[in-house]
Backbone:
């Protein structure tokens, strides 16, 4: 059977509503680390993959591997079909109008760099402004800084409150006729805040700005509908949403993508080439120079199938309940400081415990088999905002449960004892 056929959802019994049954789909979780059962609380850095995703990629490599869009032979046809079928899955997943609006990239970082280096480079002029927020990941700061340095435009960060929400009044005031691009996170990886991106997009579009949403931390947890959001661009990564690393997506409105120059030159993105001049392929290929991560794209398609097989409401309820269980449990610890207490949160709790450095906390937890991330989480301005060098961060996937949280709390209690 070809991998394209294997990607089709298997369940005919309707979407799964019992989330607790899903943990066994993830083979990596069934292991001991330092003699203790693994507790994986680092899904915001990279989520684990279910067997179905691994199987789809292995099947592709075993049966169908070949380059795409280039061969007349059977394997190349199969590979191309599987690749383009994954594009259709992505389109449906975010409700884009058509597949021309789905560009495969290496991940969120490359998606944002693509927009900055094409639209940003050609549209920004001295005095123009790119409005971001103080809670952005470096991937939604540095590409804009680079392009501002080249064009004379200015990067403007909208402030955030002590709770970790964008200051809505300040955001509205900062939007003005010089604002050409607004680039905002849907969900903050350092604070867990869910931003009101639909409202922010409407405000930005009313000011005639182009809007890019960094959806890296949103697609694993929330329903994303780019038509409803009415954003111009939406960027996300496969490996945060139970797919493989090295593959991601840039959604862009077709007319806008059409008007932009290519990002990289090479094979696949051209129509004709002479030494005088080249003409470019139609969308989406215009932005997909070179051989893409074919297996990764197929894995991403399988991850979308996997998520589509789970009832979204049940998943959201489960994850929201787990987040509040974990938040309440952490609050029972003495000297606990949770960084980021927005009303709307998803997936992530950043915290500090007494005077224990976040890295020490991470190391102690690791000895207990508990994986959390520590550091600035590629969001140094967030750390500066709260006057801290780093936090420990527990982040959750649909395979986590109360036991994982209880193990985390026990590990933190041990850390407190060690440092008392
Ligand atoms: N955040 C984290 O541990 P890439 O690396 O391109 O797949 O994703 C970059 C990125 C962009 N925006 C947000 C909001 C993100 O969270 C990330 C990745 C990881 O928080 C690794 S730093």
Residues:
């Amino acid at each position: 059977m070809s991998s394209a056929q294997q990607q089709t959802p298997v369940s005919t019994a309707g979407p799964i509503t019992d989330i607790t049954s899903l943990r066994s789909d993830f083979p990596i979780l069934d292991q001991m680390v330092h003699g203790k059962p693994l507790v994986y609380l680092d899904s915001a850095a990279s989520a684990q993959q279910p067997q179905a995703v691994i199987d789809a990629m292995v099947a592709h490599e075993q049966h169908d591997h070949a380059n795409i869009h280039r061969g007349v032979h059977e394997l190349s046809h199969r590979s191309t079909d599987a690749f383009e079928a994954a594009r259709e899955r992505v389109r449906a997943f975010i409700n884009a109008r058509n597949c021309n609006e789905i560009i495969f990239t290496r991940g969120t970082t490359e998606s944002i760099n693509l927009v900055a280096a094409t639209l940003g480079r050609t549209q920004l002029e001295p005095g123009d402004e790119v409005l971001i927020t103080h809670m952005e990941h470096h991937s939604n700061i540095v590409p804009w800084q680079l392009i501002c340095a080249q064009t004379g435009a200015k990067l403007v960060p909208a402030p955030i409150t002590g709770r970790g929400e964008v200051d809505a009044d300040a955001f509205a005031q900062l939007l003005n006729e010089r604002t050409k691009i607004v680039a905002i996170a849907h969900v903050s990886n350092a604070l867990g805040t869910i931003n009101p991106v639909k409202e922010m997009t409407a405000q930005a579009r009313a000011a005639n700005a182009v809007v890019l949403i960094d959806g890296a931390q949103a697609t694993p947890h929330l329903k994303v509908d780019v038509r409803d959001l009415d954003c111009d661009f939406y960027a996300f990564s496969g490996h945060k949403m139970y797919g493989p690393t090295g593959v991601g997506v840039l959604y862009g409105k077709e007319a806008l993508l059409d008007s932009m120059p290519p990002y990289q030159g090479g094979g696949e993105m051209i129509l004709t080439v002479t030494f005088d001049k080249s003409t470019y392929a139609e969308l989406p290929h215009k932005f997909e120079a070179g051989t893409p991560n074919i297996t990764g794209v197929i894995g991403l398609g399988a991850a979308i199938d996997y998520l589509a097989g789970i009832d979204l409401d049940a998943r959201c309820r489960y994850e929201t309940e787990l987040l509040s269980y974990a938040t309440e449990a952490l609050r029972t610890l003495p000297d606990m400081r949770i960084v980021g207490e927005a009303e709307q949160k998803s997936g992530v709790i950043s915290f500090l415990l007494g005077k224990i450095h976040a890295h020490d906390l991470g190391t102690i937890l690791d000895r207990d088999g508990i994986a959390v991330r520590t550091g600035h989480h590629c969001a140094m301005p967030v750390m500066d905002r709260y006057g801290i060098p780093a936090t420990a961060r527990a982040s959750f996937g649909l395979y986590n449960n109360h036991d994982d949280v209880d193990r985390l709390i026990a590990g933190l209690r041990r850390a407190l004892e060690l440092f008392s």
